[in-house]
User: What shape does this take?
Amino acid sequence: MDKQLVTNTIHEAGLDDFSQVTIRDIAKLSKQLENLSGEKFIHLEMGVPGLKPSEIGTEAEIEALKNNCAQTYPPNDGIPAIKQAASRFVKAFIDLDIDPLCCMPTTGSMQGTFAVFTTLKIARPEKDTVLFIHPGFPVQTTQCEVIGLKTLGIDIYNYRGEKLIQKLEETLKNGKINSIVYSNPNNPSWVCFTDEELKGIGELATKYDVIILEDLAYFAMDFRQDLSHPFQAPFQVSVGKYTENYIISISGSKAFSYAGQRIGVTCISNKLYHTKLKTIEERFQVSEFGAFMANRILYTLSSGVTHSTQYAMAAMMNAASDGKYNFLKDVKVYGERAKFMKEILLKNNFYLVYDNDLGKPLADGFYFTTQYPGMTAVELTKELMFYGVSVFPLNTMGSLQQGVRICTSFFHDNLRDAFAERISNFAKDHPIK
Amino acid sequence: MDKQLVTNTIHEAGLDDFSQVTIRDIAKLSKQLENLSGEKFIHLEMGVPGLKPSEIGTEAEIEALKNNCAQTYPPNDGIPAIKQAASRFVKAFIDLDIDPLCCMPTTGSMQGTFAVFTTLKIARPEKDTVLFIHPGFPVQTTQCEVIGLKTLGIDIYNYRGEKLIQKLEETLKNGKINSIVYSNPNNPSWVCFTDEELKGIGELATKYDVIILEDLAYFAMDFRQDLSHPFQAPFQVSVGKYTENYIISISGSKAFSYAGQRIGVTCISNKLYHTKLKTIEERFQVSEFGAFMANRILYTLSSGVTHSTQYAMAAMMNAASDGKYNFLKDVKVYGERAKFMKEILLKNNFYLVYDNDLGKPLADGFYFTTQYPGMTAVELTKELMFYGVSVFPLNTMGSLQQGVRICTSFFHDNLRDAFAERISNFAKDHPIK
Assistant: This one.
């Protein structure tokens, strides 16, 4: 890219020091530069799925619309079809038993976590803090800020295995934590917790009476194992094997490339669903945790989820559980892209930031993290702009490490040569001291 | 109905005194009685539209799905098509000028009011109370309870015209009111505010710096006038003519019979949208009221609204503004039903509770309120059960009057004779003392 043009454009956007840059700033800046220079950027900054949505979903949705599902209000906690499909899917791919009653669709996983945090805020007033295992999705922290919950974070970079459990327990001892939140595989680092780590987390949840909110947005995308066979090991690992204090969030956005329709399911453990709480009984005339979340919180948030989209999600989940729809086959391409990009980067002096699962190499998937020696995350993000590559710095995601996030979703095969060339040029221009 | 059977069923449901009855209890009870007795109830308790959804909506939605709208995230504040369509619709049918930027789709009007209340809670911490003009939709009060806002209510029964404005001003003087909420036409009473009243409310909003949240769920359903001609008087009346401190909420559920897809639009006055607030700038890195609501609140609530449904709503609004789709023609049947039912009831000793707009008879529409002499609302609700008629008592809707709400949506023509007979039998069995 033309150096002067990039410098001027960054300056004009008021982003000279880049330290407060947001993902939208980067997207906007790179598009401006494309328009001004006529050169295409390689967009690695966004976390947006790049595949065609599942036809099983759209067909089910079209049929539901033809049957006039638009007329009648959906139930607050979901139509029976999606509740049953979610319960079955959870059994098929995680090997957990959760009753249909306890599985609820939400307007995207975003609404699911908002509902969970709101429920906790009201139902557990004595515990006012959410503990995030970082790095993570920054909007969940914003949700807590909007709702009025405090947050704490632990960066897993220095804490894996037994050290993670110890560090979590130190924090839990303050008695103020109502929940622990993480995504698995992790956005942005693609770290996957081991069964041992999940066991430790689960035991802490029981011991300290906190709820684990397990965000499975990138469901079963640990491609080191084939998790695609329903009702058959190996399964997506989950804390649900080790505690009853858990809530699982499964998104249609990434697994089924269905982000546009805003659909996810929130599955509450049977025991937690039926837990009675005095804090809500008098104020809201309902006593069970799950019923409160369904009939008060989800009701007041949007009185249920778009009717037709519930049919789509039910159909996709059922087809997957039937073994008729291998959704992981579609998204496996993300892993192949990550593998290629990592090779190019490592050949050109880059290194991986979060680079192992307790000694084992990370899986290749939707995201990974990388950095160039002798630079800060912000410097690297800005410098890569000059080579027509847009990435996202980790600092806004609760990470204490210097590094950037690479998202593979828009990295189509025809970009391979350009990527290799640009990264190689970058390395030549930035010799390691 | 068999007296003993009804008494036993009510007793078994633990609802002997009926004072804490909810709408769901009544729906459940009447369905149980139908199953046990084999007799059909006349269901007048629910506020659920009973018409086929607009085909313009479903067709636009199906087309959007075929074009793979399911793949990509919708913008937080709506696709351009719906923003433009809403702005144009507001001009066509209310004669208000609101920029497309300031019109945002929400997952039902329910999400719209939740978002507004949350925005107010954070942006106006010095004013912590929402003032409801009652009777009204009880779930909006629950929303405030969930969000942590205080509420106050004024029953319009004794306060119309100048008296309403005086009463509102008395309350506003406490300095704690952040907003005034009402629906127009009113659920459940079908009271419609006059232009004079709206002028008074608007002037108070400006004087006391409070926001008017005008819920137009039953858009233009004041059938005393023909409000169906776009860009042509008479228009749906609105407080937006008299203040810039307003937010309008338009639902797809009733006007377009599109409740199942959960779509509404929230339109913020241009001036309010661009109002800068210090309270949010530091905490949320955004300073304008409307931008905060769009990019922080709506983002964290569900990251936007189901993509295909936005196309549906845009198509329906545009067709209406084009004069190609007379949505009021479809829903006019509600008014005809109300007229018939009122006649039967009045012939049989019933009276209307909320019965006039400053001397003028009320319009006939989706709801009305009625009562039988010498009974409480709860007694009447319970007694009508014995005649196979289910209604909803007003006490849960913030009304201080004895009365019940009648919803006309499921009252199909083939129920006319049965209704007349049952009401006549009721009157015979309950002679006026």
